[in-house]
Amino acid sequence: MERVEKDLKNQIKAPNNIVYPDFDKMWNSIEQKELKVVGSEFVTSRPRRRKRTAVIVSLSVALMATPVYAAIQYDWSDILSYKSGIQSALEQGLGQTINQSITNSGVTLTLHTAFTDENRTFLLYSINPGSSWDGKDVGFDQIGLKDQKGNLIEGTYTHRWNEELGVFQGYFETDWVLDGSTATVEFAMKDLVFMGDGKQTIDYNPNTSKTQIFNIQKDGIDSVTLQSFDQSDGKVLLKSAITFTDPELQKRSWVRVQALDEQQQPIKEAETPVFGTPGASNEYLSQQMFKSDQLRSKETKFQLGYDRIVGTAEGSWNINLTLSKKQLEKSSFEETLNIPVDQVTDGTKISKMIVTPTQVRLIMTHKEKYTRVPFMNYQLDVDGLLLDGGISYGTNKPNKTELRFEMTGLDAASLVNKPVSLVASHRVDEHVGDDHPIRLTNISDKQQTINSRIAGYPITWKYYMKDNHLYVESLSSDPAFGGVNQTYYLSGKDREYGKPAMMGILGDGNNKHMDVYENFDSSDLEIYIYRYTTEQPEDEMRIKLKP
Question: Are 23 and 15 a contacting pair, CB within 8 Å?
Fold first, then answer.
C-alpha cells in the first residue's frame, strides 16, 4: 500500500512523465455545478495545477472501490507549527476521526479529525477547489459550528495551499467546549471567495514630503494616500491610508505599498511593518520603514499590492457530526489553585489549572472587569521542560484572564506528579502621565525640538506643521522608557487628544511615538502626557503552581 501511494505521489509530482487524457471532455461528463468567476483568465492561467487536481480526482473516481487514494496521508505539521499540542496529539494517535466530505459548486470540503476537550474544540479540514480555479487563497462569508438550535459558534481559522495534493489544508479552533461528553453539531461554511494577487502601479515621488493621493478605482479599492516622514537614523517612515469602494474586500484583503528595486523585486522594510490598523474614518492604515537611500534611488518604482477576488462559489457546505471528548478527557484533569499574583493589582490570583492532552490553561481571576498582566512572554516550566504560551485575548470573560500553553513533548498524565511553575518575563508597565505641560512655541513648518522629563526619564520632543496638521513626535534615549502612549491638550476643562500617527509594537524596544492634531491653526500649545510605559526586559516573575 505504501509503495503504491508513493508511486502515485511521484507521478503527480512529475506531470511531464504522464500521458494525460482529455480532461475537458472528462469534466464535461461529470455532473457538477459551475463555479462563478470574475474574468476569463480564471480557468486557463494555471493549467498545470488543473492537471494535477484532475489526475487526483479522476483517480479517486476510477478507484472508488479500492483504498489506494484514500490511503494518502495528510501531513499537518506545517499548518500546526504554532499548534504543537494538536500535532503532538496526532503523533500519539489521538483525535476523533471524522473523514466526511461534501461537494457543492465543484468544491469539496472534507472534515478530517476533531479534538474536543475541556480547553477547546479543534477541527482539521481540507478544501479541494476543483480543477477550474485560479488563485492563491480562499475565504468564506461564514465559517463555524452550529449547535442543535442553529446558534453559530465562532472561532478562528487558517489554511495553506498544498501544491502536491491540490488542496487547502486548514484548521478551525474555538474555545467553546461541550457541556457533556458528546454533542451533535454542524460544521458549516458559506459562500467561498477565491483570492488572487492584484497589482497597481502608482507614480509616487519619494523625494517630496507632501501628501500624495492616488485614485485607484479598481478591484474594490478607492484611493491610496501616502505620507513620508524623515527619521534621524537614515530611514524614512512611509504611512499609507487606503479607502475601499467594496467593504467586503477590506475585510479580506492584505493591501500594502511595495517599493521595487531595479530587478522589480520588493525592497525589504528596515523595521517590522504594521498593516491594517483601522482609521477613524474606516481607512486601512499601514506604516513601513525603509532605508532612505533605497527608497529614494532613481531605480526604485512603486506599486500597490493587494488580494483581489478572482472567483466565488456560492452555497453552503455543511457537515453534521457528533463531537465527543471521551477520548481526551481520560487523561485530562483540573486543579484548583487560588495562588495570589502579587505583581498584579486588583487581587489577581491564579484560580485554576486545566490540563488536557493538547493544552494547559490557567485561569486568572481579578476584581476589576479587565486587567493587564504586565509581562510580554509566558512559559510553563514542567520539571525543566518549557512550554511556550501566552494570554488568550478575545475570550470576552469579565473578571477573568486566561493563559494557554501548547502541550509539546509531554502527555497530560506526566503533569500529575511533576513540579510546575509559571514563568513570565520582559515586564512592561503602564503609567498615568503627570500634570506638567510641555510647551510648544512658534509652531511652523520648520521642525523644532524641546526636552522634558517624566518620572526621571528624559524625553525629546519634535514638532512641526505639515498639510495644516500639527505633528508631535517623542523619543527617549533611555531604553527603560517604553514610550508615550498618547498626548492631549486642554480646551477649557475638556481634553483634546492627539490622534496616534505612528503605530508602535509594545515591548519592541522602540520608544518613538507620534501624535497628530488635525487642522491646527495656532502658533503655541501646551500638551500633556496621557499615559506612558516603562520596560524591564530582564525582569522575571516565577510562580510555583505545583510542588
Answer: no
Number of C-beta neighbours around residue 360 at 10 A: 24
The closest alpha carbon to 392, from 90, 117, 183, 155, belongs to 155
What CA–CA distance (Å, rounded) separates 60 from 19?
A: 18
Assign 125 a pLDDT band (cuts: 50, 70, 90).
very high
The answer for residues whose C-beta is within 8 angstroms of residue 361's C-beta and 6 or more apart is 118, 119, 352, 353, 354, 392, 402, 403, 404, 405
- Positive or negative CA dihedral for 367, 370, 376, 378? positive
Measured distance CA(236)–CA(288) in Å, rounded: 8
Q: Which three cell numbers stand for residue 153?
A: 459558534
Lowest mean pLDDT among 14-18, 116-120, 419-423: 14-18
Q: Which residues, at least 6 apart from 32, have a Cβ–Cβ distance to it below 8 Å?
A: 103, 105, 106, 130
**Close Cβ partners of 150 (under 8 Å, ≥ 6 residues apart):** none
> By three-state DSSP, how is residue 428 classified?
strand
Order of all β-strands in the sheet with 284-291: 212-218, 221-230, 235-244, 284-291, 274-278
Range of lowest pLDDT (33-37, 93-97, 102-106, 317-321) = 33-37
Of 481, 138, 448, which is closest to residue 310 (Cα–Cα)? Answer: 138
Separation of CA 159 from chain center: 12
Is the distance from CB of 528 to CB of 433 less than 8 angstroms? yes
d(C-alpha 53, C-alpha 306), whole Å: 26
Pull the grid cell for residue 212: 500624495
- Whether pTM > 0.90 for this model: the answer is no
Joined grid coordinates for residue 239: 504611512
Strands (DSSP E) found in 293-332:
301-324
Is the pLDDT at 215 greater than 80? The verdict is: yes
> 77 in helix, strand or coil?
coil
Rounded distance between C-alpha atoms, residue 334 and residue 362, angstroms: 10
Indicate the residue type of 366: H
Per-residue cell: 259: 517599493
